[in-house]
Design goal:
428 residues; alpha+beta; UDP-n-acetylglucosamine1-carboxyvinyl-transferase, Chain; four-stranded mixed beta sheet; 14 helices; 26% strand; globular; binds uridine-diphosphate-N-acetylglucosamine; binds phosphoenolpyruvate; Enolpyruvate_Tfrase_dom; UDP-N-acetylglucosamine 1-carboxyvinyltransferase; cell shape
Length: 428
Amino acid sequence: MQKILVEGGNPLNGQVRISGAKNSAVALLPAAILADSTVTIEGLPRISDVGILGNLLEEIGGTVTWDDQTIHIDPSKMTAMPLPNGKVKKLRASYYFMGAMLGRFKKAVIGLPGGCHLGPRPIDQHIKGFEALGAQVTNEQGAIYLRANELRGARIYLDVVSVGATINIMLAAVKAKGKTIIENAAKEPEIIDVATILTSMGAKIKGAGTDVIRIEGCETLSGCTHTIIPDRIEAGTYTIMAAAQGEEVLIDNVIPQHLESVLAKLREMGISIEEGDEQLLIRPRKNIKSVDIKTLVHPGFPTDLQQPFTSLLTRATGTGVVTDTIYQARFKHIDELRRMNAKIKVEGGSAIVSGPVQLEGAKVKASDLRAGAALIIAGLMADGITEVTGIEHIERGYEHITDKLTSMGAKIWREEMSREEVEQFQNS
Ligand SMILES: CC(=O)N[C@H]1[C@@H](OP(=O)(O)OP(=O)(O)OC[C@H]2O[C@@H](n3ccc(=O)[nH]c3=O)[C@H](O)[C@@H]2O)O[C@H](CO)[C@@H](O)[C@@H]1O
Ligand SMILES: C=C(OP(=O)(O)O)C(=O)O
């Protein structure tokens, strides 16, 4: 088991290239189940979530070959193999096997998903969608059983705007008979990316990226080649890192429009950001001022950048109020930031950050993926050395994070944990 160490205070300079989007990748791989011949996806991030999904595709009979960041998935020999336990529990996005297998085989058995612990993460809207399409859905001992004689298009209104439910319903509906309309759909860029791969396979989808998506079901979908979009959350994380500890940092392979809400907040703090076609140039100021942020569905401020942004606020002058309307309890990083001398109170669903403070290196634990990113940002700014454990969470979403930061001048490295440290970590 490894930990990440950061020696703070070293300025970041130079360039970082953003990887393919995790939250697209984890839906694009299951989408390949729906095709009748090989699907090739280019530009994938080699992160643990993607590796696990590749293994799950093999478990159901897919032939998976990797060529650096390109995957080739031959789905022709896949079966409706039940996946009630095991690797499906290691990540959130295994729930996309429900929609994709229901679409192709009209049946599936998938264990309830894992993923970051951010408070309750129900999947009732996914199930409502599958039922509307004609599936019988039961929960038996922690696994979801889905079965349909046939799938029929339906009009589905989502009570909650959900990325996962929108994509999962799309995956099943492309193989349903007739027309499906998803109302109050999520509008995240990853939804457009999934609609793009499905369209390349032959699906008929209109309106992805708006809150009404119309799908005309097809009998067969064929193989295709698709290039994934860049990861806006990884790009946002490096932009925040540059704002926290950079001199001049170029973020390459980014779609700036995906990050408008975050860039607006950074500019409000006094940080200079130049936007190119696929690049952002960040030149922070020494003195930055606090802002309030409230997370919202896209195109609002993304919940996945709330935790990294909180670390940045510790170096800003004034009081910043952070409110997460998507996951009201996404504040597990706050106790760890306090160990590093941050002045943050959690009150009534908001974190109130007072600054500026000089953070101090400490031994801290990442409770989830973006908490891990928040602690690395804090470590970059802190006096002395910060040790971050729980890095398996970070590896779910950040490709080569230590190498990328090292190339920009950060002192950051991995070390094996001693037996005592592993025991302490497991008991904490
Ligand atoms: C793999 C992936 O893409 N993960 C992202 C996805 O998660 P995920 O798809 O799980 O998140 P959702 O968009 O579904 O969740 C949004 C909100 O809706 C609620 N909800 C969701 C589904 C449901 O059936 N019922 C329900 O009540 C959730 O508890 C949450 O409060 O979107 C989140 C919100 O942008 C991001 O933080 C995650 O990084
Ligand atoms: C919450 C996240 O991921 P997941 O939904 O995969 O747990 C995230 O990417 O911040």
